[in-house]
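User: Here's a protein and a ligand (zinc ion). What would the complex look like?
Assistant: Let me lay out the input and then the predicted complex.
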Amino acid sequence: MKITVHTKTKEYPVIQERGILKRAEEVIGRSGHVFLVSDDGVPEQWRKILQEQYPEAHMHVFANGEQSKNFDTLKTLLEDMLEHHVSRADTVIALGGGVVGDLAGFAAASYMRGIAYVNIPTTTLSQIDSSIGGKTAIDLNGHKNCVGAFWQPDMVLVDTEVLDTLSPRHYSNGLAEAIKEGLTFDEELFAVFEKDDYREHIDEIISRCLNIKKNVVEHDEREAGERKLLNFGHTIGHAYESSHGLNEYLHGECVGMGMMAIMNNEELKSRLAAVLQRLHLPVSCESDPEEVFRLLLNDKKADHGRITIVQVDEIGKGYLQDISTEDLREKLI
Ligand SMILES: NC(=O)c1ccc[n+]([C@@H]2O[C@H](COP(=O)([O-])OP(=O)(O)OC[C@H]3O[C@@H](n4cnc5c(N)ncnc54)[C@H](O)[C@@H]3O)[C@@H](O)[C@H]2O)c1
Ligand SMILES: [Zn+2]
């Protein structure tokens, strides 16, 4: 599948094809040099496939994990780019999950005021969610994605074959975002997760999500309206994430529990719970509701005791709703 994402600053192809990593050089086909970026959690077999196609190129590999999304890792990466004489005409190619994409994307956005950037996402989360849309960032003093830039990639190559080595936990974690997209935008996508053999439909799941994300990003690049629907489950989910110190639960796991907490429709809730359980994702979060509420208010700008959330009463039809913070508090108990 090939789609073209049209944004105000750039138009770029997203190509999804099993095994495309092996043809990356041919498909990317850029002039100038390339600089490769990955992390040490991406299995060597995938890094090697890319490296072999660019024998002259340097591959910068940093330690995997969210703790690498900081100024120190960014500085080391930028210094390495400088040492390898990366010029304005060159291209950064990122091979990895959301951490590699966010960090390499931000390095590409800031190095010499911005150079070309190709993203090859290797986790379900990055293929579904973070590889298109142009958000790049690092964390600052425990504040996630606090420093960053909107910087669209020049191309995104999505190879579902690389997901074969992903741990079951990370595999399901990313799929929580796909479940969210099914609930808010695409009834047929949600239906795939109600089948036992959902893993056999991974290519369809990813392509449906890429199409949803493309449409939303094109209509609302900077998150003024429609893109907000992608935040379903995130208001409470982020607070769960913070209350557990960003370590215990992964992001997608918190989104799943956040969707469970916010939804009103009991029938839908039990269908969602069944899907989350099928994917071995947690359904409810053990935490102090008052603490979660406090974190939630810190995170979101409540206006005179009111807050905008995303709600779903009917599958595929997410909408924005303005509710009182008191009503939101009750959902946590
Ligand atoms: N830019 C955006 O729009 C956006 C959206 C959502 C999330 N994010 C960011 O994405 C990050 C999370 O991304 P993630 O969930 O991909 O985590 P991640 O990048 O940390 O990857 C998870 C783990 O899997 C390893 N890994 C990667 N590919 C693998 C493969 N094919 N086989 C085996 N292991 C592999 C990684 O090394 C890492 O240890 C967060 O920092 C989050 O803030 C960004
Ligand atoms: Zn998310």
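Summary: The domain at 168-330 is CATH 1.20.1090.10 (Dehydroquinate synthase-like, alpha domain).
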